Amino acid sequence: MLKNDDWSREETDYLFSMCREYDLRFPIIWDRYEWPSKQRSLEDLKARYYASCRSLMELRTPMGQMSPEVLNQFNLYNFDKEREVMRRSMAERQFNKTQQQFAEEEMLLTELKRIVANQEKMFEERRDFYQRLNFPTTTGSIQPYTGSQGLAHLRDMMLSSSDKSKKRKSVALGQGSGADAAQQTPTSANSIDRPGIGGSAKEKDGKDLKRQVRKLTQEEEQLYGVSYHEKLSSGVKLRSGMVASNVKGATAAKVATALTQLGIAPRLTMPTASAVQRYEQLQNAVGVLLDSKKLLDKLEQEARVLKAQLELKEG
Amino acid sequence: MSAGPSTLPPSQAPSTLEYGGDEISALVLDPGQCWTRAGFAGEDTPKSVIPSHYGYIEGAGPDGGRKLYFGDNDVHAVRAGMEIANPMSDGIVADWDTAPSLWRYALTSRLAQDLSEHPLLVTEPIWNPTKNREKTIEVAFEDFDVPAFYLARNAVCAGFAFGKSTALILDVGAANIAVTPVHDGYVLKKGCQRQPIGGDFLSNQIRTHLANMGISITPHYQVLSKIPVDVGKPAEATLKTWPEGQAPTESFRRFEEERVLTEFKECCAQAWPGPGPLPAIMPEGGVPNVAATRSFEFPDGYNMLFGLERFRMTEGIFTPRSMLASANIPHPYPEHTLGLKDMVFAAMKDVDVDIKQIILNSVVVTGAGSLLYQFNERALHELGIAFPGPRVKMLASQIPVERRYATWLGGSILASLGSFHQLWISKKEYEEHGANIVEKRCK
Question: At the top level of its lineage, which domain of life is listed (chain B) (predicted)?
Answer without folding.
Answer: Eukaryota
